[in-house]
């Protein structure tokens, strides 16, 4: 390459190696989304070519020099019906195809593992159930469905992984979820795509998809020692939830064992399914869903627990299948004696993270 | 039936002695005028001014994106620049572009009236526009605003300390100017048509403005209310959108898009009207399937109100509403397709010439087709998840708004320039501008579709290096585009003094506006016209020019 200056050549090489025109396909859904994309490109190209041909051919054939006299035509119902119905049909195919994909992308399979994401100006905080914390990165195993339960601490954000073709708005005060199944190990972009203020373009990170073995190694290498549920248990005690929700017959509040996923009867007689969001609402705004048969005495914890704390509580309540430990904790803290059997006892307040300092 | 074109001899045309331009002199005669044509000119000058400010901002954005790092300006500055670009272009340029200038000038003449129904409200509408513009410039000069043109809460209400209130007020005030314009058009079209001008003899330009006016009158108040709520939330914290106070942040999205989706049709329908006139004139043929084109405008306006949630597919709307809104979005794309095919069919057996307005109209057809079809990508639920909030969106709406509306606007400005000023624009140079704009446009915005599919988020001051090559294309295209827009500014100004005299009907077009002198008299018609023929009746025109000369006064 003597005829191009080496500096310029290097520059070109560097430039072109950085030149991408198609994103990696790294999730189960990605090839299906791409197939649909090609269908859409296909109908667009056909449409565009038809319009281009019509305009082009008529312009040549009927230009003034060749056709000095215009022939007046009213219209043609048949033709018009044709070009109404064919696009309509093609668009209907898009509608159905798009809807099917949408339901797949937004309805997680029941066996998905759950990871929590909290967005705030301008970072992503990831909480794994095992207690691993990450900032601006997300480690996931391949070939396993992963569901993200996400919430924003401040403004709207949006969690986007182009290589997986998934994205979902992260909303203040409301859980939203998305799921994917990574298929190719690698490091991919993670973007915040909803404009969120000054450093919106820095609210980026990476998604690391790993083989199951690597993932296991990573999980055990980065544990913080306390799982989310354990932290939730401590919070539960520290915030005094256990004084009312202990499952004893004369408790002030309903038993919380197995509550997530169950049908709850509300004071107004209707039934609702208790979800993550329901539990979160119950903690922050207890009167929003008043449970039947109980007095509205639960205090609001608005401003006392951070989003991460709430996530810990939710995760704890999700895993709560009996009230045994709550009773244990109660008895232990009432007698004031430490016990190895109940990790929630003793110095719970000082070790539980997620309480807002006041 | 056939029609022969014989363009009138330009060299013998003379400027009329009296016209709306020289009836009165002095600044006051302009600033206090009730004449819809003078108000149109006032609008023309002011929107051009704002267009070039908005354009300068666009230049800065593209310059920053030349390199991956955020190096030309601070992230905050970048955010302010794209916000100001968006607000100016949408509310101060595109919304008023065709209706307030060309529409204002022509609607009364096309229906055979002396003026709009409420001339004073028309003037008030311009003053409101200017007030909005001044407020926005105040916000800009005093430090800017960085909400994005979408004013998203709670960012705009609780997390920014820029001039959100001033900018919100600016849009609020400018909104009323478009409500008044819409109101004026609706009443004029209903009540002031000349004898014999039935609904189905109206030029399609009038139909599309009628449809757009309905959107303006019904949609804009919702935007106004939404902005007031944002301002109240910011100042006294009423909490409608604040989850901490039991408000709903998604409510803002619903309200905002309830206006802003119809607004995109406010921005395109008048342009479609221009294209109908131009294509018919330069192929000397009646628009193919007049009724279908007329009703498709109305269909767009009606359906346009029921698709807003397609801007919220990833925000957690329920599955069922996602389905309904996606379906309706597909339906709203159909009338646009019908129009494109009808325009193409209009060319069939025409006698086509390729003057500048026609070139812009061809540009419109190509670019709008791409824009509309990519709208179908975005209306398809599963596809939208990947594409929304990326550069794909940016490319989509620039194809429809800039490739569509701005092309239509330039087509219209060139087409009616002889009518408005009495002089021709220079043909060669303007063809060059049309082609430059087209090439520049494709180069600027086509790479953005690819960037969008790659996942590059919109509103990013910095981006990963592998996106650079496409961004460099885009910036290069933007400079070409800039030249394409500067050219008309220069030669149109030049033509005011040196352009060839146009004469009443340089294109041999059929509209009523071409049957009166150029530039028109203040009262448009010497006597109320009686309409006996359909729109685009080239037979009638041929007979008319055989028999009588166009009346001029003085
Ligand atoms: C022809 C049929 C059209 C269809 C089917 C369509 C569809 C869509 C859809 C579904 C979106 C939302 C994408 C998202 O947020 O994920 C969108 C965005 C947008 N469209 Fe269209 N569109 C069409 C025509 C137009 C026209 C004519 C205009 C304007 C002249 C326009 C301007 C916009 C704008 C400005 C946005 C983005 C707004 C923003 O997020 O800032 N569209 N379009
Ligand atoms: Cu962001
Ligand atoms: Cu829309």
Please give a structural write-up:
- The complex is a heterodimer of chains A (358) and B (554).
- Chain A has 358 residues and is of the alpha+beta class.
- Chain A folds into three domains: 74 residues, Helix Hairpins (Orthogonal Bundle), CATH 1.10.287; 110 residues, Cupredoxins -  blue copper proteins (Immunoglobulin-like); 126 residues, Cytochrome Bc1 Complex, Chain D, domain 2 (Orthogonal Bundle), CATH 1.10.760.
- In chain A, 37% of the residues lie in helices and 18% in strands.
- Chain A is built from nine helices and 13 strands.
- In chain A, strands 4-3-2-6-9 form a five-stranded mixed beta sheet, covered by helices on one side. In chain A, strands 5-11-10-7-8 form a five-stranded mixed beta sheet. A two-stranded antiparallel ribbon of chain A has the order 12-13.
- Chain A is extended and about 95 Å long.
- About 5% of the residues of chain A have low confidence.
- By secondary structure, chain B is an all-alpha fold.
- Chain B has one domain: Up-down Bundle (Cytochrome C Oxidase, Chain A), CATH 1.20.210.
- In chain B, 66% of the residues lie in helices and 1% in strands.
- Chain B has 17 helices and one strand.
- In chain B, helix 9 packs antiparallel against helix 10 and helix 15 runs antiparallel to helix 16.
- Chain B is globular and about 70 Å long.
- The chains are: A alpha+beta (358), B mainly alpha (554).
- The interface between A and B is large, with 89 and 100 residues.
- The structure holds protoporphyrin IX containing FE and copper (II) ion (CU) (2 copies).
- The site of protoporphyrin IX containing FE has 24 residues of chain B, from helix 9, helix 11, helix 12 and helix 14.
């Amino acid at each position: 390459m003597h005829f191009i200056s080496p500096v310029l050549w290097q520059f070109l090489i560097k430039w072109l190696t950085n030149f991408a025109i198609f994103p990696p396909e790294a999730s189960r859904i990605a090839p299906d989304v791409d197939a649909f994309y090609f269908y859409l490109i296909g109908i667009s190209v056909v449409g565009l070519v038809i319009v281009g041909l019509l305009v082009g051919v008529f312009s040549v054939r009927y230009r003034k020099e060749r056709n000095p006299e215009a022939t007046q035509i009213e219209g043609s119902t048949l033709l018009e019906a044709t070009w109404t119905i064919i696009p309509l049909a093609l668009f209907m195919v898009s509608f159905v195809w798009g809807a099917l994909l949408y339901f797949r992308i937004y309805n997680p399979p029941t066996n998905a593992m759950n990871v929590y994401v909290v967005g705030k100006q301008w970072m992503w905080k990831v909480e794994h159930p095992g207690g691993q914390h990450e900032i601006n990165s997300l480690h996931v195993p391949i070939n396993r469905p992963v569901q993200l339960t996400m919430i924003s601490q401040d403004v709207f954000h949006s969690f986007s992984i182009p290589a997986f073709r998934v994205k979902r708005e992260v909303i203040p005060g409301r859980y939203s979820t998305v799921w994917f199944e990574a298929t190719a190990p690698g490091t991919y972009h993670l973007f915040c795509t909803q404009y969120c203020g000054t450093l919106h373009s820095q609210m980026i990170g990476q998604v690391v998809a790993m083989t199951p073995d690597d993932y296991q190694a990573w999980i055990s290498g980065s544990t913080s020692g306390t799982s989310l549920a354990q932290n939730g248990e401590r919070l539960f005690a520290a915030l005094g939830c256990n004084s009312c929700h202990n499952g004893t017959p004369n408790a002030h509040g309903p038993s919380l064992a197995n509550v997530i996923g169950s049908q709850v009867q509300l004071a107004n007689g209707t039934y609702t399914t208790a979800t993550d969001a329901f539990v979160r609402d119950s903690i922050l705004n207890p009167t929003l869903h008043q449970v039947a048969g109980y007095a509205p005495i639960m205090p609001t914890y608005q401003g006392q627990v951070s989003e991460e704390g709430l996530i810990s509580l939710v995760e704890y309540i999700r895993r709560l299948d009996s009230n045994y430990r709550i009773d244990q904790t109660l008895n232990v803290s009432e007698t004031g004696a430490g016990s190895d059997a109940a990790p929630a006892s003793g110095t719970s307040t000082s070790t539980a993270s997620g309480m807002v300092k006041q | 039936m056939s029609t022969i074109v014989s363009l009138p001899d330009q060299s013998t045309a003379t400027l009329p002695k009296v016209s709306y331009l020289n009836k009165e002199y002095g600044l006051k005669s302009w600033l206090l005028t009730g004449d819809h044509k003078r108000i149109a000119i006032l609008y023309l000058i002011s929107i051009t001014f704002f267009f070039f400010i908005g354009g300068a901002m666009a230049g800065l954005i593209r310059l920053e994106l030349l390199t991956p790092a955020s190096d030309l300006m601070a992230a905050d500055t970048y955010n302010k620049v794209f916000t100001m670009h968006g607000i100016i272009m949408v509310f101060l340029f595109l919304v008023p572009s065709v209706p307030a200038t060309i529409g204002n000038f022509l609607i009364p003449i096309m229906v055979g009236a002396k003026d709009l129904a409420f001339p004073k409200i028309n003037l008030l509408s311009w003053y409101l526009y200017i007030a909005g513009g001044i407020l926005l410039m105040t916000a800009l000069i005093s430090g800017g605003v960085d909400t994005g043109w979408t004013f998203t809460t709670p960012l705009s209400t609780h997390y920014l300390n820029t001039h959100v209130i001033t900018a919100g007020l600016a849009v609020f005030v400018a909104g009323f100017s478009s409500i008044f314009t819409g109101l004026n058009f609706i009443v004029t079209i209903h009540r002031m048509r000349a004898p014999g001008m039935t609904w189905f003899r109206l030029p399609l330009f009038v139909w599309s403005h009628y449809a757009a006016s309905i959107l303006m009158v019904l949609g804009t108040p919702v935007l106004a209310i939404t902005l007031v709520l944002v301002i109240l939330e910011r100042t006294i914290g009423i909490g409608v959108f604040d989850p901490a106070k039991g408000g709903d942040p998604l409510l803002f999205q619903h309200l905002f898009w309830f206006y802003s989706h119809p607004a995109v049709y406010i921005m395109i329908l008048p342009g479609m009207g221009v294209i109908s006139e131009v294509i018919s004139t330069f192929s000397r043929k009646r628009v193919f399937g007049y009724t279908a084109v007329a009703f498709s405008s109305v269909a767009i306006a009606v359906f346009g109100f029921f698709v807003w949630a397609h801007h919220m597919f990833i925000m957690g709307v329920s599955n069922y509403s996602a389905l309904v809104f996606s379906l309706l979005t597909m339906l709203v794309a159909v009338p646009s397709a019908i129009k494109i095919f009808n325009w193409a069919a209009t060319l069939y057996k025409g006698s086509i010439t390729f003057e500048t307005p026609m070139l812009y109209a061809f540009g419109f057809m190509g670019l709008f087709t791409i824009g509309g079809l990519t709208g179908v990508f975005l209306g398809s639920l599963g596809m939208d998840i990947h594409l929304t909030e990326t550069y794909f969106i940016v490319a989509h709406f620039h194809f429809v708004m800039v490739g569509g509306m701005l092309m239509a606007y330039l087509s219209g400005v060139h087409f009616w320039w002889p009518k408005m000023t009495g002089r021709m624009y220079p043909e060669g140079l303007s063809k060059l501008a049309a082609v430059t704009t087209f090439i520049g446009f494709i180069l600027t915005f086509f790479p953005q579709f690819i960037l969008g599919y790659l996942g590059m988020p919109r509103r990013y001051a910095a981006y990963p290096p592998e996106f650079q090559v496409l961004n460099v294309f885009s910036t290069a295209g933007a400079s070409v585009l800039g030249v394409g827009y500067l050219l008309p500014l220069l030669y149109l100004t030049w033509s005011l003094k040196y352009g060839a005299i146009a004469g009443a009907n340089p294109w041999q077009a059929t509209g009523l506006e071409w049957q009166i002198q150029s530039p028109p008299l203040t009262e448009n018609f010497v006597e109320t016209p009686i309409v006996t023929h359909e729109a685009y009746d080239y037979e009638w025109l041929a007979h008319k020019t055989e028999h009588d000369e166009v009346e001029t006064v003085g």
